[in-house]
Amino acid sequence: MIKRKDKQQGQATTACMTRRAFLFRSSAAVVGTVVLPHIPGLKGKALAAEVARYPRKLIGKLSQLQVGTPMDFTYPDEGMNSSSMLIKMGRLSGGGIGPDQDVIAFNSLCTHMGGPMLGTYRPDDGALGPCPLHQTTFDLTRHGMVVGGHATQSLPQVLLELEGDDIYAVGMLGLIYGRYDNLKA
């Protein structure tokens, strides 16, 4: 609470937060989440809480992928909410692997209420959605960020590694719907 004196009546009043305090605090939050991870020397330590490492799992072959055609797989475990999809986008994508950095993978449950997103990929837009429950759409070329709808979190991205022609899933960036952490359900 901020106490200040009312100029007209000379009485002390309390306000929840001034506009200046709000702008200062929200700017600090942006700096903490956007700028800090890119400071040399941190080596990704600022993002460590969001990344979960899992055992390496072979999920596909680079030579078998066709641009714009998703391939379904389960990761990080065989649980019901582990349904994921691997896609060769045909254009540079955040977190992409391969010679064109265009091969990406995501968990396929909407982060809003767990709506099944398999079958909603739109290759022309590089988007997944709309979700059949509440119409959320995600931009897969930008780490699965929300572009419309009710969800407030990006789609969890499967971290990938390429070894020769083999594509391996090695972890998750973001929280899988229905879990309170990224550990096995």
Number of strands: 12
Give the number of domains: 2
How far apart the termini lie comes to: 41 Å
CATH superfamily of the largest domain: Rieske [2Fe-2S] iron-sulphur domain
Q: So what's the overall shape?
A: globular
What are the segments in which pLDDT stays under 50 over at least 5 consecutive residues? 41-49
Relative strand content: 25-35%
Keywords:
single chain, 185 residues, Rieske Iron-sulfur Protein, 4-stranded antiparallel β-sheet, 3-stranded antiparallel β-sheet, 32% strand
List the helices and strands and how they pair.
Blueprint: E1 2-5, E2 12-15, H1 19-35, E3 51-61, E4 71-74, E5 83-88, E6 103-107, E7 121-122, E8 127-128, E9 137-139, E10 145-148, E11 157-163, E12 166-173
Antiparallel strand pairs: 1-2, 3-12, 4-5, 5-6, 7-8, 8-9, 9-10, 11-12
Short description:
The chain has 185 residues and is mainly beta. 9% of the residues lie in helices and 32% in strands. Strand 11 and strand 12 form a beta hairpin.
Description of the structure:
Residues 41-49 have low confidence and may be disordered. It contains one helix and twelve strands; from the N terminus they run ββαββββββββββ. The longest helix is centred in the first third of the chain and has 17 residues, at 19-35. It has a four-stranded antiparallel β-sheet, with no helix packed on it. The protein has two domains: 2-45, no CATH class; 53-173, Rieske Iron-sulfur Protein. It has 185 residues and is mostly beta strands. The protein is 9% helix and 32% strand.
